[in-house]
Each structure stands twice: as structure tokens, then as C-alpha cells.
Write a structure and sequence with these properties.
The structure is a homodimer.
Chain A (H helix, E strand, L loop, with lengths): L32 H11 L23 H11 L4 E2 L2 H5 L7 H7 L10 E3 L4 H14 L1 E6 L18 E6 L6 E5 L4 E5 L4 H9 L3 E2 L12 H6 L7 H4 L2 H4 E8 L2 E5 L12 H4 L8 E8 L1 E2 L3 E9 L2 H13 L6 E5 L1 H11 L11 E9 L1 H17 L3 E4 L1 H8 L4 H10 L2 E11 L3 H18 L5 E6 L2 E2 L2 E11 L4 H18 L18 H20 L13
Parallel strand pairs in A: 2-4, 3-4
Antiparallel strand pairs in A: 1-2, 5-6, 6-10, 7-11, 8-9, 8-10, 12-14, 12-15, 13-14, 13-17, 16-19, 17-19, 18-19
Helix pairs in contact in A: 2-5, 11-13, 16-17
């Protein structure tokens, strides 16, 4: 809509993650003696730190892509954008869940895409899809590779070969409409890159999921991502005004203006489609001015139920902080122990809640006053800025801690769901019980922690973190616990995923989520768009 | 989610609309001599009031439903719930657009459904759909019958017979979850009935479109309705947490909890599906406490662009009144003339804006203060409560005025669109010009008025009202003007409809809205759910 905007590119390159761990090497965490002692005493985790595997020891299944196809792909994209070397294939062999990282430690040959393709334009993505549909090659789209549900696994489906489409070269801000507050970003732009290119114009997207530092705009859209500031700026799907999708059957440009009554909202078929219905190449996103100010306040509540009721009173008032979250008793206690912050201004019991408020001075003051009154009225004790600023400072660190625990012989994994307020406590108990019982029965008693990180007028999300000792076969151990948790979520009326998406890992529950007819509808849409079934086989669609 | 809620039924019966006009007879408007003089002088409308046609003079096409099918339907539903009498068929022969009412004045036999069916349960709707699919009978769902886009026209499609499913017997509040603020209402509950049954529990839905007094929950969902309080409470699609749909291929229950990342949001395929993909029978809706207080403030802006910039500054601040609307210069002037309020506290020039604020005292005070500061800063002059209260008092009256104008020999019709803020002025000019030029070329110069009634951070709706003299063939006259307006909307980048839906009237532009592949996807979904193609033929799907 804006006149002749010249595309802009981030100057900060997208960081490449380690092949066998979350994030970048310089941010790796090491556990203190205090923590390893705690792990040993409480959970029986052997304190022996196993060295991470060496990249040179990893072996991959041979590339199954015929040399003539590689040559034709190089013709299409340029030789440098078709990669079959081991390092490239290894770095696209899956996501970053705990099972993913456990599998990467294996010594037998690992699965990996047969080639990694780096298209540079929407039209190149279209050409690749036509080529792969004609030649019978499965296609896995890849943004930041941060999936924790198997969403980028190199599944071949009915085909002998699978390629991964890495979208990192689609990294431009292609349009900015400052009057309407709409930015059009290409799919490969990462979270920090988006904030950089928008910040130069005084705008911010305000989408800060835990994967922020590595994940991409296309991935956020394809997985219905939700960021830590969702109370203030909405979920990612709320931000999507327009979307461009490349499919084997043609291109789609969906979304006209801020709202429409022109039939079903087809954007909502492709947001959350996880690469099974098309490759998202550009997204028009609602952005907002960089906030003038941020106010912080942490709160202590005597128990989870009281804290949840307090958060509910704020979000149902029609007003909300930018960030609003509540840790349960277990998470509050463990975080305190891990941070070594005993004696600081953190609570030593009960539940910690964090609120932040962003915007203009007047907006921040009004929201802060409103939330403070409501939270105090429902039993909260204000703790000051400290714990809220500490949370913000460390908010992208949890996956590094997870990796350190993994290397120390523990399982550390997360899962999440959402439900109505009236069912929240029931669901939390059901999932906690299922995880605790499953892992205890396997001889590895667990600590199960939970927090609310996303609130809505009608309900909230629940995010669980589980820590226990690794059993002899940790993959089988976690699969059993995960199955128990998923079954408990469905039985207790939760959604199988609030923001991690479906991928491979949640697919067994997808039919219970949408019903048999919902599954048929998804398959009918896929058959119409992708009759050859090349798009991200084995994911999402039941 | 709530325990054993006993269904509750409204005590106020749903009012039946006149067969040949909007609404009920006792609310009919009569034009003053001042207005008829104005119409004659300004637009050349002959002041002769033509008497409305008599119901006894209306003739219908013979019912094409075979007697054995009527008998079988009576077996399914009970004799009283299968109606083939002329009065019932006539009252289901279409919606309430100006062309609908012009057609109802015709003396030749009119089209009408072959029978009107009144199912009382979801399972009866399912049984009817199976029956009609097997027997080859087209099915038109009917709520309040307020469509202004041909959405309830008795189109037969490929079939010889068509029945209308009137959902008025599905009129229960089937569940209320007061903690989560979610009410489950059946499809046939009207706007006032919803407020009545919810109000008894201290809740309100807060959905007040112009059709409020007659339209139903099912219709609101099926057409992506948007109410006058959308700035405060959201569009109807924002309120839908859960939806139950009856289809020939089975039942669907869609929506788990407040938000989910479990794939495409299939609710969004059925919200806005206008009866072409299934019959919505129940909807779980976000509700809010009945507001403690309402504050009102009207504003005057020197021109439309300044007023639009002021509204934009408020909605982009992340704060919004409950109602916020802006009339352009023409609408402001005409409304003033029609109300005879010259010399009152309304502005005599410029553009009138209305704001209202609902909620708790603290919420209202904070929002009022924030909006007042912003609107004044962008050039607004506060006018006090008067014009805002007047607007609220008369806010459901416009269709009655339309009918009076129609009977006085004028055409009065409305159409609407939406776009980004940066394109709003361009779109308003394009549509105004297209309508003015088309009607002038036909020898009937028009007054074209416009207002913004729905605002979003990224854009707003535009609602146009057109008044001119009727030509010899007013149906052809308006069809020409409507075509010019629709083409102008598409060319200028607007959506073909912001809240009236697609129906028959906007279907020619549907493919330009979603693209050829979008059309194919809609047809693929329909083929999967409704292979016989019985559901609301000729509507929506391109």
C-alpha cells in the first residue's frame, strides 16, 4: 500500500544454532556445584557431566537425491544454494526438543535431508515446489529450526528423497506502511532482525517467544507462535494481516484490510499449517511504535489458584499489562533455588507473578494503576521491579539451562496447553499428576513445575517444565511420559498445544482436537493444493 | 465446562418481521413534509407516496416439493414444523435489501422456498441434512432473515426443490460458565433474547449490529457480523470460542479453550460460511459483565480526514472506546437536516463523531480521559453527551427510514467495505465517485454519505448510504450502481464486504477477494462436506 518502498535488509546476520544443542556456543550454561548437588539429592541424577558429542563423530544416512536432480536444482537456484555437504545436512536434521538432542547423540547413522535448498525469492520457491512435485521429492520448510515438536524432521513420506527448504535468504522488510502500522516481512527474517529493521523506523513487532533469537517470521506464522508479550500485543496470529503462500497449485495472497466478512478466513488455514499446505514467503504484520517506557512490577500470591484468579480479574477487565505471567509454587521455589537468590527480594514461598507495561507514559501509568489495584484486591503482594527485571533479563535462557541439565544426566523438557479459567486448576492437576505418576513408575521421580504465560478473557495457557534423572533409554522414558501427559490434556479438556504447534509429536492427538470430520477437511484441502503430497509429510494432518 | 447447567429460554418471543419491509409495523417511519420537500428539490423524487402492496396480492411460485417428501419431513419433525402455507413461504422468500423489497412489490409470481422447516435440535438438523442430501433438496438456513446480500434467497441450484431451515426453535442458553465468561447459545437466539437471558446472570454479549433486534446468533456467526460496539467488545468472530456445526458429512465441534496452536483454525472456515458448508447450531461466546456505567461524548471535526486521523490515534494507542464512529460531511449535514435539529447542540458543518465508554467506573474514567486527550489533540471539538445519546437512541432506526424513502419513490441503500488507514481516503473517494457517476449517468443524481463505524489498529470500515430518485426500473438502476461500487472497491484495494457478508450479491467479486486458488480451496472443502451440493446454493463460493 505504500509508495515504492525500497526493500531493506537487516545488517545483523541470522545466527546459526549449534548442531547438537540450542543456540550458540558462547551462551552455553554450566551448572553450579550447588545445582548438581540438588539434582543428585532430589532426583538421583548422577552428577557426571557427559561430554557433548563431537560433530566429526556424527554420521548421516547417505543422500538419496539422484545426481541429475541435484544438477537440475543447481540450475534452478545456483550451485551455492543447493547444499549436500554433511555439515549443512546435519544442521537441518531436526529441531531442538529434548528427544531431538538425545537422538543427535546417537552413534548410528542419523536421518537428514538429502539436500538443503536456499531459495532467494517467492518465485524460486514456486519453481522448487513444481520441480519437487514433478520429481516426487518431499519438501520440509525450515526457518530458524527451533521446532520442539518434530516440525522440521526430514520425513520422506511416500517418497525416496526429501529436501529441506531453508528460507534464510528471504530476509527483507519489503514494505512498511507507517500510517496503518503494517510491515511486510519475508519469511526468513528472524526475531532480532525484524526488531532491527523495524526499529530503524521507530516500530516494533513485539513478538518475543522463547525462540525469539533464532526463529523466523515464516515459522511464527506457520506454527501460530505466541510471544511473552502476548497480553499486550497479541498472539502472532492476531498480528497477521496478510499472508503470501507458495503452493504446488499456485500462489495465494490472503487478507484484505483489517477485517472482512467475505466468507471463511482462509488466512487461518495457512497460519498454523506448518508447511503441510504451502510455504509462507511473506507476511504483512501489525506493528506498533517502539514503546516510550516500560514499567515493571512483580507480585507474590499465596498459592496458584489465588494468583490465577488475580490474573483473570485483570485480563477480564478489558485491560492488560504487556507481559503477565504466574509461576506455580514448584516453579517459584525451584527458580529461586537455581538463581541462588535466596535472601534477595524474591519470595521464599507462594507464587511469583511478573507484570510489565509498555507504551506511552499516559498509557503505562493508566494500565499500571488499574492492574495494581486489581492484583492487590485479589490477594497479591507487590514485590517491586527487581524480580520482573530479572525475569526479563534471563527470559531467553531456559533452553540453555535445559541443555546443561541434559548433559548432566537429567531429562529436562517442557510441554504446554490452554483451557478456560474455570478448568485451569483441574487441567494443571491432571497433567502434573500424569507426568509425576508416569515418571515415578519408571523409577525416575520428577519435579513438575508450571506457569501461566498467556492470558485471555476466557482462559489461559499452562506451561509445564519437567526435570528427572535420565533412565537407561531416555527417549523411551520421555515418550512414555509425554504420551501420559497428552492423554491427560485431552481427557481434561485442554488443547493439545497452545503455542508449540503439532509437528510429528502432537499428531497422535490431532484428530481428538478437530474430530474425524475436521481431519477429513484438512486432508481435502491438502489434496486440492498438494495432490502429490510432497509438503512436509508426517506432520500435523491426522 | 460448567456443571449441569439447566438450559434457559428467553421469555421474550422473537418478533417476526413484516413480509414486505424491515422490522415491525408499529415502528414504521413516516416522512415529514420537510423531508419530502427536500427529496423533491434536491433529487427530483416525486413526493407521491405509493401505498405498500397488500399481502393478499402477493403470489408465489407453486411449491415444488413432492407430497411424499412433505409427508416424510412431517414424520421427522412433527406436522407443525413443516410449513407449506403461503404466509410462511412468503416470509422466507428472501432478506431485506432494497432490491429484496423492490422485488416483493412485484405482481408476477415470486420465488419462495417450497417448504419452511423448523427443527428443534441439532440432531433434527442432522437428520434433515441427511434427508435432503438423499432426496436432492436444496437447503437454505434462516435466522432472523435480515440478510441484505441475498444470503437467504431460495436458490435451488441443481435441484428442483428448495427448503428453508428456520432455526428459531433453537433458542436456548445451553451453558454459562461465569468464571470464564463463556456462554453457549443456540443458533436461533436473537440479539435481544441473548441480552435478556445473559442479563439475568449479570452478563452481556455486547453485539449490537443494526440487525440486532431481529438477527440471530447463528446468523451473526455465519456472516461474520460486526456490531456497533466492536471497538470495545470486538467483532462477532472475535467472540466465538467454540462452534457446533451440522453438515451432511457429520457434526463438527470446533474450538478448544481460549487459544490453540493445533494447526489451522477450522472455526474460521465455518464462521463466515453463510450456510454453504454447514448449519451452525450452537456457539460458545465470550461474554462480559453488564457494564456499571456508560459515558458519552460527541465530537466535531473540521473534515473527514482530520476525524479519521483522530480515531486512528485512539485505536492505535491500544485503547479504545466501546463505540467510536465518524460521519463524513455529507452524512453529518443530512442527518442534521433529517432530525430537524438545526439550532440544537449538533454541529452545522464538519464531521460528527460519537464515542461511548462502558465498563467499571475506573475503566470508563481512564478510557474517557485517554480518548479525550487524543481526540482533542488531533483537532476535535467536544460537543457533550447530547448527540452521542441521540445516536444511541435511534441506532436501530435507519432501516425503517430506508423503507419510508423507498415508499416515497426514492432509492435508499447501503454498502460497506474496509481498508488500511493509509488507503481510507482514497477508497472513500473512489466509491463515492463510482456511485455518483453511475447514478448521475442514469439520470438520477444521488446523495452519497459515508461513515466509519468500526476501527482497528491497522484500518477501518467505510459504510456508504446512497439516496436518489427511483428510475423506471429501480432494480436495474441499483444493480448498475452496485456493480460500479463493487468494481471500485476492488480496484481501490478494499474488501468487498466488511460486515454484510457475500451472499448472492457480492459473489461476483469473491474470486478477486481470495484469488482463483482460494476459490478452489473453498470448493474442495465444500465437496468434502457437502458432496451433493445441497447447502445454500448460489451463495458465497465463487
Amino acid at each position: 500500500m505504500s509508495d515504492a518502498f525500497v526493500p531493506e535488509f537487516p545488517t545483523t546476520p541470522a545466527p546459526a544454532m549449534e548442531w547438537d544443542a540450542w543456540g550458540v556456543a558462547e551462551s552455553r550454561r554450566h551448572l553450579s556445584a550447588q545445582v548438581t548437588d540438588l539434582l543428585q539429592q532430589a532426583l538421583g541424577v548422577s552428577a557426571e557431566q557427559s561430554p557433548p558429542p563431537a560433530e566429526a563423530d556424527a554420521t548421516l544416512r547417505e543422500s538419496a537425491l539422484a545426481p541429475n536432480l541435484v544438477a537440475e536444482l543447481r540450475e534452478l537456484l545456483g550451485a551455492d544454494n543447493v547444499r549436500t555437504d554433511t555439515a549443512s545436512r546435519l544442521r537441518h536434521s531436526g529441531g531442538k526438543s529434548t528427544p531431538d538432542l538425545l537422538r543427535r547423540k546417537a552413534t548410528e547413522p542419523q536421518d537428514a535431508p538429502d539436500a538443503v535448498l536456499l531459495p532467494g525469492t517467492h518465485n524460486e520457491v514456486m519453481a522448487l515446489l513444481r520441480f519437487c512435485a514433478a520429481e516426487g521429492v518431499a519438501v520440509v520448510p525450515f526457518g530458524g529450526g527451533t521446532s520442539v515438536v518434530g516440525g522440521v524432521d526430514p520425513v520422506r513420506g511416500r517418497y525416496a528423497a526429501v529436501v529441506t527448504l531453508d528460507l534464510r535468504r528471504l530476509d527483507a522488510l519489503v514494505d512498511l506502511d507507517p500510517v496503518s502500522g503494517v510491515a511486510t516481512l519475508q519469511a526468513g527474517v528472524t526475531g532480532p532482525q525484524a526488531e532491527q529493521v523495524l526499529g530503524a523506523h521507530g516500530f516494533s513487532l513485539g513478538h518475543f517467544p522463547q525462540s525469539f533469537q533464532f526463529a523466523t517470521i515464516g515459522g511464527f506464522a506457520a506454527t501460530r507462535s505466541s510471544g511473552q508479550a502476548s497480553a499486550g500485543y497479541g498472539r502472532f496470529d492476531d498480528m497477521v494481516e496478510w499472508i503470501r503462500v507458495a503452493t504446488p497449485a499456485g500462489s495465494l495472497d490472503l487478507g484484505r484490510g483489517p477485517a472482512s466478512a467475505a466468507g471463511p478466513d482462509l488466512r487461518e488455514l495457512f497460519v498454523g499449517s506448518e508447511g503441510t499446505l504451502g510455504i509462507i514467503t511473506e507476511v504483512g504484520l501489525r506493528v506498533h511504535p517502539v514503546p516510550e517506557r516500560t514499567a515493571y512490577q512483580a507480585w507474590s500470591f499465596p498459592d496458584f489458584e489465588t494468583g490465577a484468579a488475580a490474573l483473570r480479574s485483570v485480563v477480564q477487565s478489558g485491560s492488560a499489562p504487556t507481559v503477565m505471567r504466574l509461576s506455580d509454587e514448584a516453579e517459584t521455589g525451584i527458580n529461586l533455588a537455581l538463581s541462588g537468590d535466596i535472601g534477595g527480594d524474591s519470595p521464599t514461598a507462594g507464587c511469583l507473578a511478573i507484570t510489565t507495561f509498555e507504551g506511552t507514559d499516559a498509557h503505562v501509568d493508566a494500565r499500571y494503576a488499574e492492574a495494581t489495584t486489581l492484583l492487590a484486591a485479589v490477594g497479591g503482594t507487590a514485590l517491586g521491579e527487581g524480580p520482573a527485571k530479572s525475569w526479563e533479563h534471563g527470559r531467553f535462557d531456559a533452553p540453555y539451562l535445559r541443555d546443561a541439565l541434559l548433559n548432566a544426566g537429567a531429562i529436562a523438557e517442557t510441554l504446554e496447553t490452554a483451557t478456560r479459567w474455570s478448568n485451569l486448576s483441574n487441567l494443571r492437576t491432571a497433567v502434573t499428576t500424569a507426568l509425576t505418576e508416569s515418571l515415578t513408575a519408571q523409577g525416575t521421580p520428577a519435579i513438575v513445575m508450571c506457569h501461566i504465560s498467556h492470558t485471555y478473557p476466557t482462559g489461559a495457557s499452562l506451561y509445564f517444565t519437567v526435570v528427572c534423572a535420565q533412565a537407561a533409554d531416555p527417549l523411551a522414558q520421555w515418550a512414555t511420559a509425554k504420551r501420559a501427559a497428552g492423554d491427560a490434556i485431552v481427557a481434561a479438556g485442554g488443547t493439545i498445544t497452545h503455542h508449540h504447534a503439532v509437528g510429528v509429536d502432537h499428531r497422535p492427538w490431532m484428530e481428538s482436537e478437530v474430530g474425524p470430520l475436521g481431519g477429513r477437511i484438512l486432508r481435502a484441502v491438502k489434496d486440492a493444493i498438494d495432490p502429490a503430497g510432497i509438503l512436509n509429510p508426517g506432520k500435523l494432518i491426522p
